[in-house]
Amino acid sequence: MNSIEHSPLARKLSAFATLSKDELAVLTQLHQRRKTFAAGCDLVHQGQPGQAAYILASGWACSYKIQPEGSRQIVDFQIPGDFLGLRSVLLRTSDHSIEPVVEIEAAEVMADDLLGAFADTPRLAAAILWAASRDEAMVVEHLVGLGRRDADARMAHFLLELGARLAFVGLGSKEGYACPLTQYHLADALGLTAVHVNRVLRQLRERKLVTFREGHVKFGDIDRLMEMADFDPAYLDQTGPLLK
Amino acid sequence: MNSIEHSPLARKLSAFATLSKDELAVLTQLHQRRKTFAAGCDLVHQGQPGQAAYILASGWACSYKIQPEGSRQIVDFQIPGDFLGLRSVLLRTSDHSIEPVVEIEAAEVMADDLLGAFADTPRLAAAILWAASRDEAMVVEHLVGLGRRDADARMAHFLLELGARLAFVGLGSKEGYACPLTQYHLADALGLTAVHVNRVLRQLRERKLVTFREGHVKFGDIDRLMEMADFDPAYLDQTGPLLK
């Protein structure tokens, strides 16, 4: 049986709080309305009101904003256990779009479900605010990357962050991870052209730091890569429960 | 008497939910431990554990990250009614620093205060998650600014966002607002040099769109400025209570 304790979201929240039976039961409720979405078909729409949020069960998605002249800025990628559009369910109008990178399975969560869960289990509310804080800390790192890191360090930081997040929910290791992103995804996330992404990846590969090829990221020398990117995973806050 | 309903935080949260007497009482509790902090002395420290959060009662602050080589990326500015370091109280280690831009008054909030408030008033928990979502939406806009907007549009968007936020808590109008920021603050927030900031501000002034001089931002032609920056304030979600 695939019990809720082993769901990616429960694994992730356990870094913040050891969840009780009641809290796990509420989490099971929130996972009820499972749906499948095809790659490339937006499930949250920038500028539209009354959007639901989703808990991603399997697959990868990305959140992005389209600029008026048509360029796209990817804000973040979501992996299993992440909320999709948590901001959109509380803000009246969604400020961004979310697109599945591959076919995904996700559970729909409405504003009322969330408010009900908050009323029943305040610790779960705190855990969800923690998860939102962690998401925001990632966006802040991406902002610092765009504002202050050169292309090599930006790419290295990005690949290391994904690795740490995936390892935490059991989808990767210090060796590497399966990664369905294209060079266009990387370009839109890192503010680079696809040609520039290609060049940066080649340099990292030639320096034997990390290889991204055929849907797989493989770390060569993770310690040197972390040093080069000045990557400190503290902002991911993955070191065991704060609330027992 | 300066009642809690008129505090900037209560005014802001009222955009999300009409707060009950009990909820306002909990908010009063959270405002108890008021402290004064001098300009330039960090009150939250990047990389340190066990940080408190604060509710800003008066003055301006900024959150920032220092890069290893010493450059600074300002993530956001906080104005009265904003939380300072809400992320830091839930994440074990603060991922950023917070510095008062001028002398500020702020109420200290510990993790336990917040968890207690969540247990007593789940709607207030939802309102605080809403405020955190709104903060994240602002960081996302800043990321899009760095990644996709030219310097003029980036500056215009930034001055308009501050204006909308300040007007909402009664500290500005469509005419303009008092602004204690220096060109160095603007440079560190917008990823520009101080010389570039100076040039961009001169151009905006010469085009009669907006003037920033002697601590005051004065809008010349706000409609044209909004069009130029493609500024849509929907992400600030300021249009009246969602929960009655």
From TrEMBL, chains A, B:
Entries under SUPFAM superfamilies matching the protein: cAMP-binding domain-like, Winged helix' DNA-binding domain
InterPro entries reported for this sequence: cNMP-bd_dom, cNMP-bd_dom_sf, HTH_CRP, RmlC-like_jellyroll, WH-like_DNA-bd_sf, WH_DNA-bd_sf
Cyclic nucleotide-binding domain mapped to chain residues: 15-111
Residue ranges constituting the HTH crp-type domain according to the UniProt record: 149-223
Superkingdom in the source lineage: Bacteria
Keyword line: DNA-binding, Transcription, Transcription regulation
Gene3D superfamilies in UniProt: Jelly Rolls, Winged helix-like DNA-binding domain superfamily/Winged helix DNA-binding domain
Keyword Ribonucleoprotein applies: no
One term of GO molecular function: DNA binding
Record field: transmembrane: none
Protein name: Crp/Fnr family transcriptional regulator
